[in-house]
Specification:
The complex is a heterodimer of chains A (219) and B (680). Chain A has 219 residues and is mainly alpha-helical. Chain A has helices at 6-34, 39-57, 64-79, 83-98, 112-124, 134-150, 154-171, 195-218, and strands at residues 3-5, 103-105. Chain B is an alpha/beta fold and 680 residues long. In chain B, 36% of the residues lie in helices and 18% in strands. In chain B, strand 2 (124-127), helix 7 (131-138) and strand 3 form a beta-alpha-beta unit. The chains are: A mainly alpha (219), B alpha/beta (680).
Chain lengths: 219, 680
């Protein structure tokens, strides 16, 4: 059976970090419109630090839960800001979901999405429609739940989740921000993409891409 | 005269957005659409000579002078853009204005105007429900049309609201002198079987038959936001919306639609009695009446889905809808006589090594500059403590936030001020670890007070650090500053940002701690200082980020941004550049309005550069601030003027006034010694 291993976790975070580095300028620009322009740096540095820590931690015979907890604390202390606590909570929830195992069946990879979204929502207390990253994560959760109910293959489920997140992020344009720094802009936040939703969609796209490549490589 | 002629026999085809004004229509076609007089004559159904007279009249009546009246121009051009973009038959956009009449009333009046223009004898007009729809019905004049029928588009509800489907239909029928056909069944029934039974009842079946014959519909558009009236409508009372309808963003006639305008299916479908969306879309004339910023997403969805082909809304809503569709230059946001923009300021010069090292290098430089005052906290590179601060039995004061505000925050660490500080990345809250390290370094056994500005990142990280400190037996109280009066209205003070007023709050709290007051008393006095602090900023140029060395937002050459924050975030409004006195007045008007000082009251004043505005300009502004305060009989107890709380190299100023009382005066006068504030 195809498995998702601790080594895969490092490899996945290397992909996520590369994607966040590539998105850094775009995210900074989006955040400059309605926030303080730090979101690009925060995401790029946070995931780069988490990725480095995961690669270094591999030698210690860590479980998936260990790895995800390490990623969480590393990311938190690398960036602070709002992004740090939200993604740290997301990754800690993912650590609980995967548990103290060296590997889980590959199909469990999709469980990352509801787990992470749960951590983000509980920590940030955001609601759908508030123009935050929740507006990308929640549609992705629903796509995963739909996919798992129908019994699709994992890469396809992750792709559907990525598409749902992208559409959700796009829909934030028409929303008036209710939380975070952009909320002070009120109506002037309308017409702009929420940078947190945009980075979430990029992460999920990168996750789907990684799964497709990995499945393809291993047959 | 041509004008009188036009009023006697109005051409039947004047598009709605021109009101009754044939002159305006002619002027628009000629000056904006660039049609020839012959083409206009053909389009308006009048002679070329009349067109000529109309155009002359339009000029003498100042409809057309150098420009079309800006409000009307804006509303018209937005209406046109909306119509073109969504392929609408017509579109009426009213000025948003801050008039005395509520938006709902004015939308209702505009909707009434649209309907009375479009309705014809023999029509069957379906009507949904809602506040805007009821407002429309209430403001409609009798039409003089014959054989009209008004039919309820959905079943009824028993909700205790004035704008039920029954009320809207009854009222509209009265106003039009039409026969009213209700739907004698609930909008939502308990089970699909019940729906089947009811629809087969002869009375209901006959009413639904009339509904099927509707050739017009007047519809409201509901948002699903928590504050929306739909949640009190009785439509969705017993349904867990988000478990079934997570994709829905709006509702029309009790049916739900997604952001793309597609119907969203769910358990209510089989239990809803009323018009179906596919049927609704087949009605030839579909007049949507809705506006308001909270509804932008829902209205956009309705337009994308094609449920509306005559849209009645207001200019702000319409502009936001167009902006959401990616219109860069929304009509009306352009200004007449704007000077051509200067070349964009790219590559702002800065003294930097590697941008990613900037914060650590700043901290290193500060430690060296203020050797006798600041010291490093062992094992925490982003935490500093006061050399002479923490002592046994004294409440520890910990402050912190992102870098980029220098001398905020470490400038306020020292004797009589804060005991320790946690420093984040540029404009980013510090993570919990350095906050915890600062908290432990400041702890003298009497508890620790955290003071920071009201930003989501600071709240999250300080909250986590406080939990970690509590787990180690150090009690923590937090005071969140909210002095930026531009960032939210007075009735939601808790939502406001904490900005330069921090400086006064730190000072007052630091003095309270130094006087060995207990933790809760220190927290109370800090909170009181924050609540009595009023700040507002104006930016002339955005600051430039370290990584990109580019401005964090764009500000035109003739513009200034009012109510700007301290992180390069945009303000509440962009206005024309004003003189120093006018700029000071803009701020003072707001501050005095909120503070309501009595004659003889005392304030402390902070005239603060946001980065690159020089001391000289601060003094010019201060002069005017003092004139205003003197005129109000307010005494200035102490003035700080200079770089106290910056936003990188933003050009601009913030003015803070702390409304003093005797205790605050005494604490403010208490001695202190820190890098940014020393007094004996």
């Amino acid at each position: 059976m195809l498995m998702f291993t601790r080594t895969d976790l490092s490899d996945l975070f290397r992909s996520l970090a590369a994607r966040m580095a590539a998105e850094q300028d775009r995210l900074a620009e989006l955040d400059g419109e309605i926030g303080d322009a730090d979101h690009g740096v925060a995401m790029a540095e946070g995931f780069a630090a988490a990725s480095r820590a995961l690669i270094e931690g591999e030698a210690d015979g860590q479980t998936l839960a260990d790895g995800l907890s390490l990623a969480a604390t590393t990311l938190l202390n690398a960036v602070g800001a709002t992004t740090g606590p939200l993604y740290a909570s997301a990754l800690l929830r993912a650590a609980q979901a995967f548990g103290p195992h060296q590997a889980v069946p590959f199909a469990r990879l999709a469980d990352l999405i509801p787990a992470m979204a749960g951590g983000i929502i509980d920590r940030g207390r955001g609601k759908p429609g508030d123009k935050t990253m929740v507006d990308a994560w929640l549609p992705a959760v629903h796509a995963v739940q739909d996919g798992q109910r129908r019994g699709g293959d994992t890469a396809a489920i992750l792709r559907a989740a990525a598409l749902a997140a992208a559409e959700g992020a796009e829909a934030t344009r028409a929303m008036m921000a209710a939380r975070g720094r952009a909320a002070r802009l009120g109506p002037r936040s309308i017409g702009h993409l929420d940078p947190g939703a945009a980075s979430a969609a990029a992460l999920l796209d990168s996750l789907a891409g990684w799964a497709e490549t990995t499945v393809g490589r291993r047959g | 005269m041509a004008q009188n002629q036009a009023q006697r026999t109005p051409p039947p085809l004047i598009p709605l957005r021109f009101g009754e004004d044939a002159l305006l229509w002619a002027a628009w076609l000629y000056y904006v659409d660039g049609l020839t007089q012959n083409e206009i004559a053909a389009q308006m159904g009048i002679s070329r000579a009349s067109v000529n007279a109309y155009l002359a009249d339009a000029r003498t009546r100042n409809i057309v002078s150098i420009e079309i009246d800006p409000d009307r121009y804006r509303a018209l051009s937005i209406a046109q853009a909306l119509r073109d973009h969504f392929g609408l038959q017509d579109c009426l956009v009213i000025p948003s204005g801050a008039g005395e009449r509520p938006l709902i009333d004015r939308l209702g009046a505009a909707g009434a105007q649209a309907l009375s223009r479009l309705a014809q004898s023999g029509d069957t007009i379906a009507v949904t429900w809602g506040r805007s729809v009821l407002a429309l019905a209430q403001q409609l004049d009798r039409s003089g049309l014959q054989d009209l029928r008004v039919v309820q588009a959905t079943g009824g509800t028993t909700a205790k609201i004035p704008w039920t489907p029954e009320a809207c239909a009854t009222r509209l029928a009265e106003a039009l002198g039409a026969r009213c056909i209700p739907i004698s069944a609930p909008a939502i029934v308990s089970a699909p079987e019940m729906r089947g039974l009811l629809l087969s009842e002869a009375v209901v079946a006959e009413q639904m038959q009339v509904l099927a014959q509707a050739n017009r519909i007047v519809l409201g558009i509901s948002s699903l936001r928590p504050e929306s009236t739909i949640h009190t409508s009785g439509f969705f009372d017993d349904v867990a919306m988000h478990s079934h309808y997570h994709a829905a963003v709006g509702s029309i006639a009790g049916r739900l639609i997604s952001a793309r305008g597609e119907p969203v299916d769910g358990p209510l479908d089989g239990r809803t009695i009323g018009i179906e969306l596919s049927h609704l879309k087949a009605i030839p004339c579909r007049i949507g009446v809705a506006g308001g910023m909270d509804k932008v997403q829902a209205i956009l969805a309705a337009l994308r889905g094609g449920y509306v082909n005559v849209m009645v809304t207001d200019a702000d809503t319409a502009r936001a809808i167009l902006a959401s569709e990616g219109y860069d230059e929304v009509p009306g946001s352009r200004r007449e006589g704007e000077r051509p923009p200067l070349p964009e300021r790219t590559g702002v010069k800065k003294f930097l090594n590697r941008p990613q090292d900037a914060v650590n290098e700043t901290v290193a430089g500060a430690l060296l500059a203020h050797e006798g005052v600041l010291a490093a906290v062992e094992g925490a590179p982003r935490a500093l403590r006061a050399v002479r601060g923490p002592r046994p039995g004294k409440v520890g004061l910990v402050i912190g936030g992102g870098a980029g505000h220098e001398p905020g925050f470490f400038g306020y660490v020292g004797e009589g001020l804060a005991d320790a500080v946690a420093i984040g990345n540029v404009f980013a809250a510090p993570p919990p670890d350095p906050i915890l390290a600062a908290t432990l370094a400041a702890d003298g056994g009497a508890g620790v007070l955290h003071i920071f500005g009201n930003f989501s990142g600071d709240l999250l990280n300080f909250e986590m650090a406080a939990e970690m400190a509590a787990a180690r037996g150090v009690p923590v109280r937090a005071v969140v500053t909210t002095d930026d009066i531009a960032s939210a209205p007075a009735d939601t003070r808790a939502a406001r940002r904490g900005v330069a007023g921090n400086v006064f709050v730190f000072k007052v709290a630091g003095a309270a701690c130094d006087r060995m007051m207990p933790l809760d008393a220190c927290a109370d006095i800090a909170r009181r200082a924050s609540q009595r602090c009023y700040s507002m900023g104006i930016a002339l140029e955005p600051g430039a980020l370290l990584d990109s060395r580019r401005p964090s937002f764009q500000l035109g050459p003739g513009d200034m941004e009012i109510g700007v924050g301290v992180h390069g975030e945009r303000g509440i409004a962009r206005v024309r550049l004003a003189s120093a006195d006018a700029a000071a007045d803009l701020i003072l008007d707001r501050i005095l309005d909120e503070m309501q000082p009595a004659e003889g009251d005392r304030v402390a004043l902070l005239v603060n550069s946001l980065g690159s505005t020089p001391q000289m300009e601060l003094y010019i502004l201060n002069r005017r601030v003092r004139q205003r305060l003197r005129a109000r009989g307010v005494e200035v107890h102490r003035t700080l003027i200079g770089h106290y709380y910056t936003s990188l190299d933003m050009a601009g100023v913030s003015i803070t006034a702390l409304h003093l009382d005797d205790e605050l005066v005494s604490l403010l006068d208490h001695p202190c010694r820190s890098p940014a504030w020393t007094q004996c």
